[in-house]
Amino acid sequence: MDPTLLGFIVYLIIILAVGFLTVRLTKTLADFILAGRKLGPWVVSFSERASGESAWLLIGLPGLALATGFEAIWAAIGCCAGILFSWVFISGRLRTESEKFGALTLPDFFEARYDDRSHGIRIVATIIIVFFFTLYVSAQFLAAGKVLNITFGITPLAGMLIGACIILFYTIMGGFFAVAWTDLFQGLIMITTLVLLPIVGIFALGGFGNIAPAVSKIDPKLLTIAQGKTGLEMILAIAGGLGIGLGYMGQPHLLARFMAIKDP
């Protein structure tokens, strides 16, 4: 059997097993939505980061670096800054406040926090989340379809359907417990990949010192901080990259991880 296919089958078995094993942990609505606020630090950390990076880190950011070169570093810096800010200034307070108000979702929290008895905040927040996350989740499924298409030669649509069925299965079975623990497992795979691939690439080029000359042969501008841009154009390019970090502070699926922390 092809080693790649075997590895994928093992991966599927582990993911589906998590769904089965976490069924018994999900007994209430709070368990299904926030794992009963019982997740430990390692699980929450890996779950939050695996969910926050996902296809963006493994496909989107490398693609940005391929297209813009060193300019992509500003997006990476912005992401790191946004993540750090969220963990330092938002996570603990949101966890405490959401439990105080008995909120299980962000719309719940906003409505209770601002005592909105008209339910206007909840409705608006829900509409915003549903609209933008339909696009966001679609991008994740598209990435899964492309990866399976390239890896196994199946159509992108078939890959998307396979990915969707797997996610739906373990989510329905184990709720947020299953989601968080599969995130932990997948986060470990992501870290391993992100560590090993650069090493393989450096060896393939014959050493770290050969990276810059190889990139320069493609386009010398790729080695500049803003792809050769100057003045206002350079400032806007850098600001645009750094501004990506702002998104981490308001993404509902990431903030839900903070709300699920066992000990704030």
Task: Describe the structure in your own words.
The chain is mainly alpha-helical. It has one domain (3-259). The chain has helices at residues 3-21, 29-34, 41-68, 73-100, 106-113, 120-152, 156-205, 211-218, 231-243, 252-259. The chain is globular and about 60 Å long. It starts with a helix and ends in a 5-residue tail after the last helix. The mean pLDDT is 91.
Q: Over all CA atoms, what is the radius of gyration?
A: 21 Å
Mean pLDDT metric? 91
So what's the overall shape? globular
Distance N to C terminus: 47 Å
- Low-confidence spans: none
How many distinct helices?
Answer: 10
Spell out the helices and strands N to C.
Answer: HHHHHHHHHH
Estimate the helix proportion, in percent: over 70%
Tell me the strand percentage band. under 5%
Q: How many independent structural domains?
A: 1
Could you say which structural class the secondary elements and strand pairing correspond to?
mainly alpha
Main pleated sheet: none
The tally of beta strands, per DSSP, is: 0
Short description:
It contains ten helices and no strands. The protein has 264 residues and is mainly alpha-helical. The longest helix has 50 residues.
Key descriptive features of the protein:
mainly alpha; globular; about 260 residues
Question: What are the SSEs and their pairings?
Answer:
Blueprint: H1 3-21, H2 29-34, H3 41-68, H4 73-100, H5 106-113, H6 120-152, H7 156-205, H8 211-218, H9 231-243, H10 252-259
